[in-house]
Specification:
By secondary structure, the chain is an alpha/beta fold. It has a single domain, classed as TIM Barrel. The chain is about 35% helix and about 10% strand. It is built from eight helices and seven strands; from the N terminus they run E-H-E-H-E-H-E-H-E-H-E-H-H-E-H. Strand 2, helix 2 and strand 3 form a beta-alpha-beta unit. Helix 4 runs parallel beside helix 5. The structure holds zinc ion (2 copies). The site of one zinc ion has 4 residues, from loops.
Length: about 260
């Protein structure tokens, strides 16, 4: 691995370590590019702050830390400023406004929830075709904005209904990703923790559709930045589906 674009910081409340430790681990493990992509602050209308994101009040701190490290380590590694962000139609413009004062290099599209009320967490087992359809619609609409560099764990939705429905819906997702030239991420964290993603039913569809693939460490601990055993597992996983992860991708600036 020479580039990892999926890295969190302690500000989201469920990651550990100092920002600097992520950078030093990335350098030690030979990365050329390290992208920070912490959970984006969302401007919820009622002032509500979600429990798993960078709080709005820490946004300045997140940005200045990443930019400071970029300058400090510029001889050793290319550090990029990003966010992992849902696509919520009702909050999308507001989210971009919150980010617009900052030199954001990229956004990763993630569908942790289908809507901004964030009631149903998508990795929990679900049987509803409607919910799966909405998940796919949101990812497609997000890709169509042209603001996102790649889709993080596109297979995060845990559907336990009929296989043919899963196939139908995920084929839609993969077809659009291919047409819009948006890479899909094999999530190394999911693999390490034995989560429902990466999903064995998903990746043959991505292969059939000719989708581009990238690995994302989704590091919530400096130890998990390009950890060799985890990477070996992820590469073997990709190979099972005759997929080749791209070592480096072009980032799309959202504005
Ligand atoms: Zn995620
Ligand atoms: Zn993540």
């Amino acid at each position: 691995m020479i580039a990892n674009y999926h890295t969190h910081t302690c500000r989201c409340g469920h990651a550990v370590g100092e920002d600097r430790e992520y950078v030093e681990k990335a350098i030690e493990r030979g990365l050329k590019v390290l992208g920070f992509s912490d959970h984006v602050p969302m401007p919820f209308p009622d002032g509500h702050e979600s429990r798993f994101r960078v709080p709005l009040r820490l946004l300045d701190d997140y940005v200045s830390s990443v930019l400071g490290l970029r300058a400090e380590y510029r001889e050793d590694i290319d550090i990029r400023l990003g966010f992992e962000a849902e696509y919520y139609p009702d909050l999308f413009e507001g989210m971009l406004q919150v980010l617009s004062p900052y030199p954001v290099d990229y956004l990763l599209l993630a569908g942790h929830f289908n809507d901004s009320r964030e009631t149903v967490y998508n990795p929990q087992t679900q049987f509803s075709h409607d919910a799966l359809r909405t998940y796919v619609d949101r990812i497609i609409e997000g890709m169509e904005t042209g603001k996102y560099t790649y889709v993080a764990h596109p297979d995060l939705f845990h559907y336990a209904g009929p296989e043919r429905i899963y196939r139908w819906e995920m084929t839609r997702l993969c077809e659009r990703a291919k047409a819009l030239d948006v890479p899909l991420e094999i999530n190394v964290l999911g693999l390490r923790e034995g989560r429902n993603y990466p999903c064995d039913q998903f990746w043959p569809i991505a292969k059939e559709q000719g989708c581009r693939v990238v690995l994302g460490c989704d590091a919530h601990d400096p130890q998990d930045v390009a950890e060799p055993e985890q990477l070996a597992r992820a590469l073997a996983y990709a190979a099972r589906f005759q997929l080749t992860a791209e070592p480096e991708i072009a980032l799309k600036k959202p504005f």
